[in-house]
């Protein structure tokens, strides 16, 4: 039996009628940009996020960028960011002319290590961008406390962790402004690019709302140099149709993870995901680590098991950031992760048989 890295089939079957109905309603409405569907989804996603505001934007990268812009982070400023995130978090900082200051993750949870944060703060630091990586909430209590003490903004990158929580608070509700992505493979995925900013600050929400729409609140009156980064009506309608299922799908991801944890326990040279006390994990990805990563991936591919690497090159070693003069060895935990991590198949609707198939191939390979 083949097991793909990701299949949309069970999700799509569960919401096929609702999604197609929602799309035809938009089609019939004859209003395709910033209409009722966006307004409705923004209200629903704000409620889900326990925030007062949600601003739908074109994608997760724009959500991060517009958040930094609304906070007036600019050239000469420093922004603390994980050394092991997807490059989008760094790119948003670069877009506003600020400098990403990488901080290493906790080597077992892969999330920003609060114990290392303070050493990275300088008089130029303006913001911290915790990334809830792979689906696990960061230790937001300690991060918010440090940010408050140093008068810094917090912008959560919640692209991978919709519905995760830390100490009972939901991700995307802690920071001054928070960004998420509804890229199709995300836990809440659109049928194309989409993203959102969430916040409890009405003034900041107004700024993001203005920035996403040509710097304009009133048609043809432009207050600031803005962007065209609006959530599509069609994508908003699709997201509204899928949102009621999100926590059910999250539960299914958590069941798959629990089964992997059980079946992969005790295998030599295989590290399983660890969850920090107080945090929940919504398993956007189920990431294991082994020193034989490349060989294991090749073997699994031969057995029809799909896997991916998140991510093979950390941002500081990317060609795009060569100008910052980082070198190999500067962020050893991020570098170690990049050479050892492997994301196993993970999607709502995966069956116990799928998990057993993947696990038994891994056991066979690592035990031989
Ligand atoms: C951690 C993280 N941040 C930001 C993004 C950017 O989102 P998007 O692809 O919607 O621009 C992604 C996903 O691609 C991501 O995984």
TrEMBL record:
UniProt xrefs under CDD domains: AHBA_syn
Record-level Gene Ontology MF annotations: pyridoxal phosphate binding; transaminase activity
Keyword Oxidoreductase tagged: no
Pfam families tied to this protein: DegT_DnrJ_EryC1 (PF01041)
Residues the record marks as active site: 186
Keywords noted in UniProt: Pyridoxal phosphate
Coiled coil regions in record: none
Modified residues (N6-(pyridoxal phosphate)lysine): 186
GO BP annotations, alphabetical order: polysaccharide biosynthetic process
Alphabetical list of InterPro entries matching this protein: DegT/StrS_aminotransferase, PyrdxlP-dep_Trfase, PyrdxlP-dep_Trfase_major, PyrdxlP-dep_Trfase_small
Family of this protein: Belongs to the DegT/DnrJ/EryC1 family.
PANTHER family in alphabetical order: 3-OXO-GLUCOSE-6-PHOSPHATE:GLUTAMATE AMINOTRANSFERASE, TRANSAMINASE
Protein name from the UniProt record: dTDP-4-amino-4,6-dideoxygalactose transaminase
């Amino acid at each position: 039996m083949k097991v793909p890295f990701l299949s949309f089939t069970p999700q799509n079957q569960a919401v096929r009628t609702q999604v197609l109905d929602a799309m035809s309603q938009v089609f019939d409405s004859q209003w395709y940009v910033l209409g009722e569907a966006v307004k409705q989804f923004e209200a629903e996603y704000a409620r889900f996020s326990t925030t007062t505001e949600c601003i739908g934007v074109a994608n997760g990268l724009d959500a991060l960028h517009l958040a930094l812009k609304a906070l007036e982070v600019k050239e000469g400023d420093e922004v603390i960011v994980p050394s092991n995130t997807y490059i989008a978090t760094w790119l948003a900082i670069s877009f506003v002319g600020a400098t990403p200051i990488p901080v290493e993750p906790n080597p077992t949870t892969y999330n920003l290590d609060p114990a290392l944060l303070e050493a990275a703060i300088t008089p130029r630091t303006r913001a911290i961008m915790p990334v809830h990586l792979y689906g696990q909430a960061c230790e937001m209590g300690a991060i918010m406390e440090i940010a408050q003490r140093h008068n810094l903004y917090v912008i959560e990158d919640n692209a991978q962790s919709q519905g995760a929580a830390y100490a009972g608070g939901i991700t995307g509700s802690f920071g001054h402004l928070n960004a998420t992505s509804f890229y199709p493979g995300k836990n809440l995925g659109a049928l194309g690019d989409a993203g959102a900013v969430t916040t409890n600050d009405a003034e900041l929400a107004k700024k993001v709302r203005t920035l996403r729409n040509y710097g304009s609140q009133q048609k043809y009156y432009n207050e600031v140099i803005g962007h065209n980064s609006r959530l599509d009506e069609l994508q908003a309608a699709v997201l509204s149709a899928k949102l009621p299922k999100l926590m059910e799908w999250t539960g299914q991801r958590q069941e798959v993870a629990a089964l992997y944890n059980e079946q992969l326990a005790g295998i030599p040279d295989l590290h399983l995901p660890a969850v920090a006390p107080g945090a929940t994990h919504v398993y956007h990805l189920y990431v294991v680590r082994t020193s034989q990563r490349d060989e294991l991936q090749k073997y699994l591919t031969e057995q029809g098991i799909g896997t991916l690497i998140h991510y093979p090159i950390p941002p500081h070693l990317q060609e795009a950031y060569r100008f910052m003069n980082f070198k190999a060895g500067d962020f050893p935990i991020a570098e170690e992760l990049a050479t050892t991590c492997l994301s196993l198949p993970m999607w709502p609707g995966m069956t116990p048989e799928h998990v057993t198939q993947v696990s038994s191939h891994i056991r066979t390979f690592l035990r031989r």
